Amino acid sequence: MSRLIDWHLHCYLPEHRSADDVALQKLRNVAGDGQAEPERLRAVVDAAGLDRFVIVSLPRRPDVHTPHEFIAEQVAAHPGRAIGFASVDPNDPGAADELERAVTTHGLRGLKISPTYQAIDPRAPECWRLYEIASAHRIPVMFHCGGAYTGSLEWADPCLLDKVAMAFRELKLVVAHFGQPYMEQTAILMRKNENVYADISARTHRPWQLYHGVMIAIEYKVADRLLFGSDFPVRTPAQAIDEFRRINDWGAGVSMPRIPEEAIEAILHERPLSMLGIEPAPADA
Fold it and tell me: Residue 20 region, left (φ>0) first, then alpha (ψ -120 to 50), else beta?
């Protein structure tokens, strides 16, 4: 069954981020207006006609924290449509217990961590314990590798996840934002490890970069594991869908191969949540 799914969007309140973090995003020219309150989330997912969507916690840091109770409330507000992903900071000694509570108490169905924002080697023992918990609960792990407006670029290369993917073959790993700007590395990682996926969230407003990345994925025959995402509020889902469908228009007057329209539509409509073993609770549950 064809479904329109946004695999990566956010919902949070202003108090979930510090004033310094908001100011730094503006200084670094991060796209979007940073407004992601529940009322606005409802408006944008309905405007885009999304069948399903994944509400991803912001990468947990000392000055950024979306409570798991809040994410669970937003999932409950969209019965049958929404899935929630937790985020814990591997540097926090209580991270493992917090992840357990997020899954068993709050019903969240995925984990988001960021080697870049959280400044940690994804192969570190602190992360390994989180993978073990995720594997035991059969929930996917999403990684923000690649570029970031703060944190550390030391651990940005998605190829650092190769050891994780090999050690946890049953664990589904998602490289957020296609690992930008390391899209070739992400495609190579995906080719080698069939349990690795990537989403294209927050890339549709950079058409040359995304065009290049999708072409690489097609050449390496891993485009069937590319997932659509908007990274709302960076883009609304409707904006991201429109921009993605116009990806071949990035270089007007330039003769370049076109990404097949069927490949674009497949990424939009043929990536069910069941690919990663997750589904929202039925609306009447």
Answer: alpha
